[in-house]
Amino acid sequence: MQARSTLTATAQPGANPKPFLVVLGPGLFTTYELPAQGSFIVGRRPGTEVWVDDGLMSSEHVRISVEDGCSVEDLGSTNGTYLRGERLQPGRRHALPWGEAVGIGSCLLVIQATSPAPPSRRAISYGFLRIRLDEELARAAVDPARRFSLARLQVLSPTPMAAVCHTASEVLRPFDTLSVYAADEYAVLFAQTPHEEARQLLALLYETMAARGSTVRCGIACYPDNGRTALELEAQCARVLRPALSSETDSNVAAESPAMRELYRYAERAARSQISLLITGETGAGKDMLARWVHAHSPRARGPFQAINCAALPEALLESQLFGYERGAFTGATRSQKGLLEAAEGGTVFLDEIAEVPLGVQAKLLRLLDNGEMQVVGSSRPQRVNVRFVAATNVDLVRAVAEQRFRADLLYRLKGFELRLPPLRARREDILPLSRSMLARFSAVEGLERVPSLSPEAVACLLAHPWPGNVRELGNTLHRALVLSDHQLITPDELFLNDDASSDPAGTEEPTERPVEETTKLSRRVSNPSRHRVVDTLSECGGNQRRAAELLGIPRKRLRELIVSYDLPLPRARS
Fold it and tell me: Measured between alpha carbons, how far is 353 from 335 in angstroms, rounded to an integer?
């Protein structure tokens, strides 16, 4: 992307006290000094005052006027002009305060004024910051080399917002985004910035505020090292800001059940080695969480953790995204691009949904697993990569091999060590520890100082639910309940699990009408009766499922699930 302007270019905007325009786009950062008065047009047509070679921009996109203040006017563009996340009506002038970002095409325009005492920038709303964060995540998804960071500041001493914004104006760059996250908390997005540079800027902001008498705490999350989604990046920042919650959120695992304790004993041994690891289990059971735990407890913990969703990458792009490509390797390859595997040098590569990898790419992965060499698209020489592979799938790979959808040699190479993650319904002892950990993490993300508790009735509902969506469903249920609750106590009304529990009238249980003592007893009984006990009880009741469920102390729906899980013939009541 190129930019050219009839305005005067300035390489260092801080060196001149005049106002200047910042044009920020993919691979583009240009600044121009502005006249004291007048107007100019920004567009894609060569010859406009500010010309930007952007296919999403109209020939004459916007007019910016500089008089007593600044204003912006959309000139009937095709893709629109956005200010504070809202599309501007064409033909109308809108006030443009200094420091506000205007979105046109794939670029941002910012008007700044430099002086020995710069004016305080405004802290935008967090909703607009999320728009900017989502844009950065979208760009990073197609550009593996892109780096950015998200930071949070918690001001512990009484400091007016104007003072924080004024300090930020002196330290942050024009294209850094400052927003209000919560009371006395601020968020900063360092877009398209190497991690070390972002940390230096945050340290300078911290030192400047401390020198002016403001006690602050800072937390920073770097993409992709600390997360690949907005929720993961925010949670990483919250761990630093709220140490009281970090003890629950750092591990992010719950291993109260015997099955999980045994699983993590094996996982700990596997983590210390360099052997390839295969994690199997149902969708939503927590395979990604287990893979990150293995990486954190391995000798490669200081290296990057590169999570790759093989099902999310289009088949036509999968090979070039994984292995990278050389300039001219195919139409549109105007420059060389490092692949996702090379970006994980010295760390761990997590191949999620490995069964979705096409057979042709499977052969190249097998070579990489065998001798550590990969072939960059368009290159004639192999390249060595030092990574460890952890793969995950919810598909029966043995059956996929029989159906010729997966290579047998790749299966045996990936299956150096296999960890079978049991579904949540088979480890109900983990439901409450997981719930407490998740509520602590979601409370930190939502900016709550106190973690809400679960009522006894809500506990009974959580233990009785079959959780077909496993840990992912549990997390979504608790996050929704947290948002709907009064942030003090979560009841069954916020869980919205009653419909599932009462779909079968014969198996309906009403824990809310029982005393607390009886509810506690019910929660202990609602687990997995052994296969032998289920068979004996059905035989005693002559195949009557309703009577058998009452004797077992579980809903009738739960009994039917156990019958299927234990591979028992569906009984019929004897006359």
Answer: 29
Q: Could you tell me how many residues make up the chain?
A: 575
Alpha carbon distance 184, 187 (integer Å):
10
Side by side, the strands of the sheet bearing 185-190 are 177-182, 185-190, 148-155, 216-223
Question: Which of 559, 506, 501 has its CA nearest to residue 535?
Answer: 559
Start and end residues for every CATH 2.60.200.20 domain found in the chain: 3-113
Q: 105 in the Ramachandran plot: left (φ > 0), alpha (ψ -120 to 50) or beta?
A: left
Half-sphere exposure of 69 (CA within 13 A, CB side): 10
pLDDT category of residue 73 using cuts at 50, 70 and 90: very high
Q: How far apart are the first and last CA of the chain?
A: 80
Residue 115 sits at φ, ψ, to 5 deg, of -160, 170
Reply yes or no: is the peptide bond before residue 160 cis, omega within 30 of 0.
no
Coil vs helix vs strand at 456: helix
Residue 455: CB atoms within 10 A of its CB come to 19
3-class secondary structure per residue, 34-47 = CCCCEEEEEECCCC
Q: Where would I find the beta strands (DSSP E) of 359-414?
A: 373-374, 383-384, 388-393
| 262-to-125, 369, 528 alpha-carbon distances in Å | 47, 28, 18
CA distance 474 to 428: 12
Q: Compare 185 and 172 and report the one with higher pLDDT.
A: 172
CB-CB contact of 219 with 240 (8 Å): yes
Residue 10 pLDDT greater than 60, yes or no = no
Q: Is the pLDDT of residue 24 over 90?
A: no
Q: Taking all residues of the chain, what is their mean pLDDT, rounded to a whole number? A: 79
CATH entry, 258-420, from 3.40.50.300, 1.10.3430.10, 3.90.1150.10, 3.50.50.60 = 3.40.50.300
How far from 535 is each of 10, 135, 314, 530, 549, CA to CA, in Å? 82, 56, 48, 9, 12
The fold for domain 426-565 equals Helicase, Ruva Protein; domain 3 (1.10.8)
The values of phi and psi at residue 276, to 5°, are -65, 150
Q: Work out the number of other CB atoms within 10 angstroms of the CB of residue 37.
A: 9
Measured CA to CA, the distance from residue 253 to residue 266 in angstroms comes to 15
Those residues whose C-beta lies under 8 Å from the C-beta of residue 165, and which sit 6 or more positions away, are 120, 121, 122, 123, 178
**pTM of this structure:** 0.47
